[in-house]
C-alpha cells in the first residue's frame, strides 16, 4: 500500500519540498530563532501560506489576537474543504482527527480527485497515509530550507517578497477557478480603505471585516434579484 | 525568556487557529452545508482574502518615499502576475518575482 501511496503523492512531494524550503530559508534568514523551530511549525501548524505569513508576523512582533485572526482568516478556505468530506471521514475512528488536521489544499485536491473502491475502511486507511506522507514531505522541506538558510551565507535582503508573490499567485488561481473577478475588487477596495483608515497593526482585521460585509451585502442583493437564490449557486 | 514564551504562544495560537478552520465544518456544519449564505461566503471569501493580503503586503514591501513611489514593489508584483498568467507554475512565478525584488532592493535601483 505504501508504494501505491508514494506514487499518488509524488506530485505533492515535488511541490512541498521546494515550498517548505522557501519557508525554511525565509524563517532562518528573517528571524533569530533556532533552525529546528521551522520543521516544528511544519509539524504542529502545517499550513504553507499560514507559516510564511507567520514569519512576517513574528518579525513584526504581532499581537497574539492579530495572529489568531490573521491565521484563521488566511486559512478560512479550509472551512469549505471539510464540507465536502463530511461523509468521507465519517467512522474513521482515531484516524479522523489527523485526517482533519492534515487537510491542506494539496491533500484536499488529492483526496477528492482519486478513484475510490467500495471498501470504505481501506480507503480511509489510504487517505490517512496520503495525509501522513504529504506532511512528512512538508516537514522535510521546512527542515532542509531552515538548515540551508542558516549554513549558506548570502544577502537575503528582500527575500520576504516571497510572501507577496505567493498571495498574488493564490489570488490569480482563486479568480481563475471562480471565473469571476468580483472578489478581487472587493478585496482591493477593503485593503485600500483599511490602509487609509488605520495603522499597520489593525489593517488586516479591518480589511477582513469590510470584505465580509461586502459579501453579505452582495448576497442580499443577489437574493432579492433572484427569488430562487439557489440558481446562483450551481 | 519572554521571547521563548512569545514564540511558544505564537506557535500554539497559529496551530489552534489553523486547526479550527479545518475542524469547524465537522463540528458545526453537518446540518447546514446546503445553506445558500454559507455557500456564497465559501465561494467568494477565499479569493477576496487572498486579494486583500496581496495588496496589504505589497504596499508594506514598497518604498513610498522613493523618487518613483512604490515602483520597487509594484514592478516585481506585475512580473509575478505576468509570469503566472504565462506559465501558470506557482513556484516559478514566486521565484522570479522574489529574485526581481531582491535584485531591486540590493542594487538600490528605484530607491
From TrEMBL, chain A:
Highest taxon of the lineage: Bacteria
Subcellular location: Cell membrane
Presence of keyword Hydrolase: no
GO cellular-component term (any): plasma membrane
Signal peptide: none
GO BP terms: L-valine transmembrane transport
A Pfam family assignment: AzlC
Record bears the keyword Membrane: yes
Keywords: Cell membrane, Membrane, Transmembrane, Transmembrane helix, Transport
Transmembrane segments: 5-27, 33-55, 62-80, 136-154, 184-217
InterPro entries, A to Z: Brnchd-chn_aa_trnsp_permease
Topology class, membrane: Multi-pass membrane protein
Family: Belongs to the AzlC family.
Name used for this protein in its record: Branched-chain amino acid transporter AzlC
TrEMBL record, chain B:
Superkingdom in the source lineage: Bacteria
Pfam families linked to this entry: AzlD
Entry keywords, A to Z: Membrane, Transmembrane, Transmembrane helix
Transmembrane segments annotated in the record for this chain: 6-29, 41-58
Name of the molecule in the record: Branched-chain amino acid transporter
Protein's organism: Marinobacter vinifirmus
Phylogenetic placement of the source organism: Bacteria, Pseudomonadati, Pseudomonadota, Gammaproteobacteria, Pseudomonadales
Amino acid at each position: 500500500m505504501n508504494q501505491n501511496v508514494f506514487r499518488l503523492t509524488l506530485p505533492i512531494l515535488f511541490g512541498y519540498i521546494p515550498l517548505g524550503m522557501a519557508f525554511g530559508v525565509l524563517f532562518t534568514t528573517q528571524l533569530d530563532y533556532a533552525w529546528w523551530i521551522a520543521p516544528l511549525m511544519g509539524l504542529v501548524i502545517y499550513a504553507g501560506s499560514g507559516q510564511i505569513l507567520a514569519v512576517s508576523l513574528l518579525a513584526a512582533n504581532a499581537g497574539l489576537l492579530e495572529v489568531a485572526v490573521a491565521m484563521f482568516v488566511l486559512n478560512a478556505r479550509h472551512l469549505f474543504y471539510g464540507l465536502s468530506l463530511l461523509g468521507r471521514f465519517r467512522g474513521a475512528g482515531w484516524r479522523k482527527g489527523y485526517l482533519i488536521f492534515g487537510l491542506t489544499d494539496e491533500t484536499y485536491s488529492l483526496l477528492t480527485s482519486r478513484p475510490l473502491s467500495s471498501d470504505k475502511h481501506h480507503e480511509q486507511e489510504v487517505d490517512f497515509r496520503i495525509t501522513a506522507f504529504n506532511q512528512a514531505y512538508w516537514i522535510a522541506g521546512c527542515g532542509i530550507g531552515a538548515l540551508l538558510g542558516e549554513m549558506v551565507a548570502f544577502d537575503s535582503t528582500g527575500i520576504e517578497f516571497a510572501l507577496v508573490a505567493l498571495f498574488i499567485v493564490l489570488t490569480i488561481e482563486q479568480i481563475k477557478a471562480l471565473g469571476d473577478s468580483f472578489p478581487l475588487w472587493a478585496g482591493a477596495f477593503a485593503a485600500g480603505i483599511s490602509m487609509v483608515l488605520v495603522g499597520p497593526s489593525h489593517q488586516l482585521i479591518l480589511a477582513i471585516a469590510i470584505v465580509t460585509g461586502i459579501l453579505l451585502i452582495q448576497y442580499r442583493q443577489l437574493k432579492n434579484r433572484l427569488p430562487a437564490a439557489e440558481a446562483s449557486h450551481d | 525568556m519572554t521571547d521563548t514564551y512569545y514564540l511558544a504562544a505564537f506557535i500554539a495560537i497559529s496551530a489552534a487557529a489553523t486547526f479550527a478552520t479545518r475542524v469547524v465544518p465537522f463540528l458545526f456544519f453537518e446540518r447546514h452545508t446546503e445553506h445558500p449564505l454559507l455557500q456564497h461566503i465559501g465561494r467568494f471569501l477565499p479569493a477576496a482574502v487572498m486579494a486583500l493580503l496581496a495588496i496589504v503586503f505589497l504596499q508594506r514591501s514598497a518604498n513610498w518615499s522613493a523618487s518613483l513611489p512604490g515602483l520597487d514593489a509594484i514592478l516585481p508584483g506585475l512580473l509575478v502576475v505576468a509570469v503566472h498568467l504565462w506559465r501558470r507554475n506557482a513556484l516559478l512565478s514566486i521565484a522570479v518575482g522574489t529574485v526581481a525584488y531582491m535584485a531591486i532592493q540590493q542594487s538600490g535601483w528605484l530607491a
